[in-house]
Amino acid sequence: MFSFLVNAEGGLTAAGYAACVAAGIMLFLLAIYFAGKSSEKNRMSTKQLIFCAASMALAFVTSYIKIFEMPWGGSVTLCSMLFIVMAANWYGVKTGVLVGLAYGILQFIQEPYVLSFFQVCCDYVLAFAALGVAGFFARSPKGLIKGYAAAVLARGAFHALGGYLYWMSYMPDTFPQSLKGVYPIVYNYSFLLVEALITAAVISVPAVASALNQVKRTAVS
Fold first, then answer.
1. What does DSSP assign to residue 207?
2. What are the DSSP calls for 28-83, one per residue?
3. What is the mean pLDDT of residues 175-196?
4. What is the rounded CA–CA span in Å between residue 192 and residue 210?
5. How far apart are CA 89 and CA 134, in angstroms?
6. Angle at 41 between CA 35 and CA 47, to 5 degrees
7. Contact status, residue 83 vs residue 56, Cβ threshold 8 Å
8. Which of 83, 87, 143, 187 is a good FRET partner for 136, with 20 to 30 A between their CA atoms?
9. Of the given ranges (23-37, 86-100, 188-202), which has the lowest mean pLDDT?
10. What stretches of 14-110 adopt beta strand conformation (E)?
11. 62-99 residue pLDDT tens
12. How many angstroms separate the CA atoms of 122 and 118, rounded?
């Protein structure tokens, strides 16, 4: 059954793409339903859904604008993570995790690579859902930049975990044994931190910071 969904190169077959799209839609709708089930107060409004969908769409579009691409996966994009972090900054951790989860599914559909079920969870589901931790800093001074930094660190931790559990077993025999303990961390944080520095520079520009604050006021009002 697994081979029916995944080809020999680790990518998705046509059936695999169809299954992922269907599963993604179902998971997103179920997550929205259960996220607002606890009380009327916590239910996501139409306005929140629109802003979250817009942030996810902007993240998906900018993920195609790659400044640099790594040889074994990963890339420096044009601030794509920022838009998921913004949703968490607007509406909190729960919503940020939800939007990150949906975005992770889109990323998997966009550029799938399958070694195992748990590798997919680490590299796509958990890594992007972890961007929602930015919501913990939503109410603190300079909460967006603090939350963004925390989100980058959290995402990198899951990518590194996937590296330790799965990717290192695919390295050639000539790979230095002394580097196996640090390579997943160095590799994954190399491109994540470069993108983080670029994004931090962009959102520190006074005009950009002012515009983002205005967007937040509109989103939460």
1. H
2. HHHHHHHHTTS-TTTSPPHHHHHHHHHHHHHHHHHTT-EEEE-TTS-EEESSHHHH
3. 91
4. 25
5. 6
6. 75
7. yes
8. 187
9. 23-37
10. 66-69, 75-77
11. 999 999 999 888 999 999 999 999 999 999 999 999 99
12. 6
Q: Which residue has the tokens 């520079």?
A: 201
Structure tokens at 160: 């590194």
Check if the beta carbon of residue 147 is closer than 8 Å to that of residue 88: yes
The CA distance from 32 to 56, in Å, is 14
pTM for the full predicted model: 0.82
* Dist. CA 47–CA 70, nearest whole Å: 37
Phi-psi region of 219 (alpha: psi -120 to 50; beta: other; left: phi over 0): alpha
Residue 48 structure tokens? 């929140």
Residue 75 has which token pair? 């890339």
Go through the chain and tell me how many residues it has: 221
Q: Tell me how many degrees the CA angle 119-197-208 measures, rounded to the nearest 5.
A: 115
**Rounded percentage of the chain residues whose pLDDT exceeds 90:** 56
